């Protein structure tokens, strides 16, 4: 039986037992939860005796988790900061701290998804917003290329055909990405994109009347990933987080999108290799030692009972990596 104690009306965390098994928080362990959400994973870690620092770019998540974890905050074992996890090393209070464990549970929470005003879902009439960090509105409502500031509507109304095609193809695995990009451009020439219905209309026009919720969910997710610069943030955050792990510290990532999972998989594999020189190079000239080891050889998925209870868990892939206990005293050369 999976534990439902950490669920809340805000969000039901996935793979809680598996996360605890990967991070193995000892009493007093210093853990960074980079995606606090409703605080479910943090609560499990706090109950295990860890000290938790939570980050979330969404102010509502911060407020919700702080209210839920108030007793731990009063006791000095929990604190929270509103920040994108990619900027964690710019938080002055965290300067110089090495973490025994870091968790990233990517994507959006159920509450964000269900809140019609946020525009993450394709529910009828929802505004095409999708920004996780509502502070990042540019002064003129214009777009920032790093994914900050622009809404999904702005992206659909401003991006050129090549950019739209890349978003639909790379983030949405859409075989008709080029046609969908052209359809978006054709439609916005008549009337700008404003609500979910406008984008659903464009998808239906290209994918046909048999397209349905699965297609809408996939392409809305692609748009959300672009709006929030999610893959770029993950790719940049992972090495920085690795460098802020204490010896034998663990980095755990739960991904819900194949692109996110690939980034974590490749990073963890590469860091675990003892030589990263090109295969044909005779003399090793690289770091010549692994930086740590994989804890999960394959992604860990939720079991049948959890996916029946929490459909969100179906697409969750957990990967974890442990940093070397000590840096090798001298690099080995071949
Ligand atoms: C799946 S939910 C996390 C749920 C959480 N583990 C729990 O137990 O409730 C993902 C959360 O991460 C936040 N988030 C996503 N990407 C982020 C980023 N780059 N930086 C900070 N927060 C992020 C979202 O706002 C959302 O609240």
Task: Please provide a brief summary of the model.
The chain is an alpha/beta fold. It contains 13 helices and 7 strands.
Task: List descriptors.
13 helices, Rossmann fold, DNA polymerase, domain 1, disordered C terminus, globular, 13% strand, alpha/beta, binds S-adenosylmethionine, 334 residues, 7 strands, seven-stranded mixed beta sheet, 2 domains
Outline the structure in words:
The protein is α/β, with parallel strands linked by helices and 334 residues long. The protein folds into 2 domains: 16-110 and 231-323, Vaccinia Virus protein VP39 (Rossmann fold), CATH 3.40.50; 134-227, DNA polymerase, domain 1 (Orthogonal Bundle). It has helices at 16-23, 40-47, 59-68, 70-74, 110-114, 152-158, 161-171, 177-190, 196-207, 213-227, 230-243, 258-272, 304-309; strands spanning 30-33, 51-56, 78-82, 99-105, 245-255, 292-294, 317-323. Helix 7 packs across helix 10 (213-227) and helix 8 packs across helix 9. The N and C termini lie far apart (49 Å). The site of S-adenosylmethionine has 22 residues, from helix 2 and strand 2.
- Give the count of helical stretches: 13
Q: Residue share in helices?
A: 25-40%
CATH class of the largest domain: Alpha Beta
Approximately what portion of the residues adopt beta-strand conformation?
A: 5-15%
Terminal Cα span = 49 Å
In CATH, what is the homologous superfamily of the largest domain?
A: Vaccinia Virus protein VP39
Look at the structure and give the mean pLDDT. 92
Please give the order of strands in the largest beta sheet.
3-2-1-4-5-7-6
- The second-level CATH architecture of the largest domain is 3-Layer(aba) Sandwich
Largest sheet: 7 strands, mixed
Number of domains: 2
Our Rg estimate from Cα atoms comes to 21 Å
Question: How many β-strand stretches?
Answer: 7
| SSE arrangement, N to C | HEHEHHEEHHHHHHHEHEHE
CATH third-tier fold name of the largest domain = Rossmann fold
Which ligands accompany this protein? Answer: S-adenosylmethionine
Stretches where pLDDT falls below 50 for ≥5 residues? 138-147, 330-334
Shape: globular
- Structural class determined from secondary elements: alpha/beta
């Amino acid at each position: 039986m999976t534990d439902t104690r950490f669920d809340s009306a805000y969000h039901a965390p996935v793979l809680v037992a598996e996360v605890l098994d990967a991070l193995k928080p000892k009493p007093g362990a210093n853990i960074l939860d980079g995606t606090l959400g409703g605080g479910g994973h943090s609560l499990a870690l706090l109950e295990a005796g860890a000290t938790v620092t939570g980050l979330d770019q969404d102010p509502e998540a911060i407020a919700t988790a702080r209210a839920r974890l108030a007793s731990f905050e009063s006791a000095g074992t929990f604190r929270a900061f509103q920040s994108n996890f990619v900027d964690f090393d710019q938080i002055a209070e965290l300067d110089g701290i090495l973490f025994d464990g870091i968790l990233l549970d990517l994507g959006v929470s159920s509450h964000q998804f269900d809140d019609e005003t946020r525009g993450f879902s394709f529910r009828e009439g929802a505004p095409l917003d999708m920004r996780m960090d509502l502070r990042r509105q540019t002064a003129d409502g214009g777009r920032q290329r790093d994914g900050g500031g622009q809404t999904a509507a702005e992206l659909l109304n401003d991006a050129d055909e090549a950019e739209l095609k890349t978003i639909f193809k790379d983030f949405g695995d859409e075989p008709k990405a080029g046609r969908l990009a052209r359809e978006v451009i054709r439609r916005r020439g008549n009337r700008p994109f404003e609500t979910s219905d406008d984008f659903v209309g464009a998808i239906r026009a290209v994918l046909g009347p048999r397209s349905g919720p699965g297609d809408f969910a996939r392409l809305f997710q692609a748009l959300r990933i672009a709006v929030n610069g999610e893959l770029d943030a993950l790719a940049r955050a992972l090495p920085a987080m690795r460098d802020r792990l204490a010896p034998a510290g663990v980095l755990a990532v739960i991904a819900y999108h194949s692109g996110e999972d690939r980034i974590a998989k490749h990073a963890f594999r590469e860091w675990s290799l003892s030589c990263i020189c090109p295969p044909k190079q005779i003399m090793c000239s690289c770091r010549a030692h692994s930086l740590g080891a994989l804890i999960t050889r394959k992604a860990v998925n939720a079991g049948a009972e959890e996916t029946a209870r929490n459909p969100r868990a179906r697409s969750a892939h957990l990967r974890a990596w442990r940093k070397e206990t000590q840096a090798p005293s001298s690099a080995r050369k071949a």
